[in-house]
Amino acid sequence: MPLLDQALVDGVIKRALRSGADFVELFVERKRNQSISVEESKVQRVSSGTDLGAGLRIIHQGTVSYVYTEDLSEGGLLKTADLAAQVGRRGGGRFAFGDLTGAPRLPQPIEVPPHTVGPEAKIELLLEADQAAREVSGAIKQVAVGYGQSAQEVLVATSEGVHHSDSRTRVRLMVHAVAERNGEIQTAMEAPGMQRGFEFFDDTSAAAYARTAAERAVSLLDAAPSPAGSMAVIVGNEFGGVLFHEACGHGLEADFVAKGSTVFTGKIGQPVASPIVTAIDDGTLPSRWGTLAVDDEGVPTRRNVLIQDGVLLSYMYDRLRAGQQNHPVTGNGRRQSYQHLPIPRMTNTFIAAGAHSVEDIIAATPRGLYAKKLGAGQVDVITGDFVFAVTEGYLVEGGKIGRPVRGATIVGNGPRALHKIDMIANDLKLAPGTCGKEGQGVPVSVGQPTIRISELTVGGTGVVAPGTMRP
Amino acid sequence: MNPIGERVLERCKRLGAEDAEVYLSRGTEFTVRVYNREIESLVSAESRGIGLRTFRDNRVGFSYTSETDPDALDGLVDDALLNGRYNHADEANVLPVTQPADPLAGLASPALSRVEPQRKIDFALEMERRATSLDPRVRRVSDAVYSDGTGEVEIVNSRGLQAWFARTVAYGVLETIAEQDSEMQSGFAFTHGRDMEELDLAGVVQEAVENAAGLLGARPVKTATVPVVLHPHAAAMILGVLANSFSADAVIKRRSLLAGKLGEQVAAGIVTITDDARLPEGLASRPFDGEGVPSRCNELIADGVLKGYLHNTYTAARTNGQSTGSAVRSFKSVPEVGVSNLVLKPGVLTREALLARVDNGLHVSQLTGLNTVNPVSGEFSLGLTGHWIEHGLLTTPVKELTVAGNVIALLKRVVAVASDLRFMFAGGFCGSPTVLIEELPVGGL
């Protein structure tokens, strides 16, 4: 069933055009969510809900106006169109909007739509995971596991006559384990997810992820405080890609670039990274968390090489910035929901695989930190300065992995760190995440192979080792 | 009674729910973002949503929707009842038995809805214009936003509760870029109130410009052990990190670093922290919480001693306590436990007098990596940006410093609290004055 009758869609767009707008776009969304959580080994919460609404964007010359509503009746939508026309301001700028090119792709194939599976099977999965985590060690004192599914249908229709739709179904598991011994508490989490149906769990063992989280929490109990200072840092694959995403990726989004507020402005064709670095944003990867058939402006997604062999090739654009900067669209116009304006966003962003094995990299490192897993971080987009927590870390001494360390953070500057990447492994993996920008959260993948940054500041609770001091 | 609420409650009863609660929210939003003397975007909208909790055999069911047609409302009830069948039975799953909340005056400014959109646009344009004309090193603004909104909450339940309140908020956000040679620094500031008239245009401009320009030339310094002064915003951010540890739910689930510490000294004697949902200037103030329980001021840490945790009806029932009116939620979620206006009580010292106590130390204006703090163990390792303090005055800007430690240990090392209370959104509406912490090892070069 279409989200909205085509005649109504066309009627709303026509009505909004009466204001003399250069461009009108209607975005309609229905999103059905279900989540289940198990805590203290009991089913705590089975919740479900539906978000349904529409957003109407109109552009007068360079000025964008946006109105949204939950009232999708004919009367409600026409009223919204009138309101949009009324709030629409004539800007002094020129109307420029990226042409919508490329054939729409098919939505990701879903074998078992998650809403066709009853809560029983999902609960069984969670209880198994809960038990698996608890069986790892008596030190596991608390386990929280959760299951989430969402099915988002979107429709994008514009005054150019474009009518594109997409359907995005996601399932995800979350495991959070707390280990406690002699008053010492450590936590670890795992959260795998894909754009697939419930068949995701045919080849993904919830119990195995739960054990992994629990084992890490327990091993952290024995970890020593991390030393602080400047040293080589080996960043692990998969979620380690969050470092590139945050400290460089955002700086390649065309809205930041347009304002000259990133260090990458004006650097197309110039070296911005070590020559071994190639970085890609690809919205077409099968079943990935940030994959889209069309973006939230109806633009078919594509594979965009951002950095090739260290040279900056492209930024990421939405239609507005593509038009303003006279660049082809890239399929990066995204929004959290119908309540938000689309802005340039990443999809699945990663550093391409290199030639080394992880063992090579460790063996070639006389002294450093192996940040196998990164956790939360914070970045100043303007400067690229970042701080990330290392949730699983080891000292590397004499080319060998040494004792586990806890409480480490890595501190540095993204663009500078890009130049200091001196080894890249062949173990590229992606991980799902939710990226926040201007108050909008969208699903993305981050990823990378294991990489080595020749020098980075490590913050930790341990004593600063004498060898790490520098003048 | 609200006709939607009435219809939903009636169906719940008919289909066998022993109790039910309908949470309805409505809101409006107006946001204008300007760039280069032009409107970049303008958003104007109304939104709504309904969340339903059902109670049957001590099992809670929950569902939500943004649709209000009869079919959607019937589906809402059916989904909540179905979801509830799978949840474990717990005697603590009950609706609150509550007195009507005392009204709280001044939460909504009726004048806001009468402000012409053009005046709001002019406010944003004026922020940008002034920000680029104060200091020759600040010629660009990366973000200038005016935004306001109204929010209405209505809760009806099968125990006869009918509660309603409305709230308004307006704010201006400004981010400037300072440039010198090839260096860029950003400076952020915001101003807030219940109404556009309460916004401090000159203040937000001056602060955003000073924050950016003041950091030009910032450089790393050598590792040292020195007294550390936290700007009110930096201190408020740390309060925000602590916020979830006051939740009884986090305590029950062993996710609080304050678990098991009731009655213990958890901070220096000079530290008193309250969560006051009736604070006149608090943007999170409300007459009642997400379950309709009247709001109040909760003393959490008094003279350094942990006095209590925050409760909703569920955690109160589980621990044989009383709800502290601390249920927070949106229509899309069940009531969780959370803070409202979390405040570190100001002292009597002026900020200048506090700084005068420091001969050689560090003033921290920005903390980075707060979201990396381990919420359970309290361990942190943060990036610091700010200024060196020499003889009580801020001098050289410094950056890329790190400090590592534990939140509780940090609270115990507070030696002075100034009188200059300021607020910040940090996982709640958090307020703190300038704070002096005794010597800490600060990692640098």
Explain how this protein is built.
- The complex is a heterodimer of chains A (471) and B (445).
- In chain A, 19% of the residues lie in helices and 40% in strands.
- Chain A is of the alpha+beta class.
- Chain A folds into two domains: 6-221, PmbA/TldD fold (2-Layer Sandwich); 224-468, no CATH class.
- In chain A, strands 1, 2, 3, 4, 5, 6 and 7 form a seven-stranded antiparallel β-sheet that branches. A six-stranded mixed β-sheet of chain A has the order 12-11-10-15-22-21, covered by helices on one side.
- In chain A, helix 1 packs parallel to helix 2 (74-87).
- The longest helix of chain A is centred in the N-terminal third of the chain and has 17 residues, at 119-135.
- Residues 463-471 of chain A have low confidence and may be disordered.
- Chain B is globular, with a radius of gyration of 24 Å.
- Chain B has two domains: 3-213, PmbA/TldD superfamily (PmbA/TldD fold, 2-Layer Sandwich), CATH 3.30.2290.10; 224-238 and 346-443, no CATH class.
- Chain B starts with a helix and ends with a strand.
- The longest helix of chain B is centred in the first third of the chain and has 17 residues, at 70-86.
- Chain B is built from nine helices and 20 strands.
- The mean pLDDT of chain B is 94.
- Chain B has helices spanning 3-14, 70-86, 117-131, 201-213, 232-243, 248-252, 313-318, 351-355, 407-412; strands spanning 19-35, 38-56, 59-65, 138-157, 162-180, 183-193, 224-230, 273-276, 297-302, 305-306, 327-328, 336-337, 341-344, 360-368, 379-390, 393-406, 414-417, 422-425, 429-432, 435-443.
- With 445 residues, chain B is α+β, with helices and mostly antiparallel strands.
- The interface between A and B is large, with 78 and 67 residues.
- Strand 2 (42-60) of chain A pairs parallel with strand 3 of chain B.
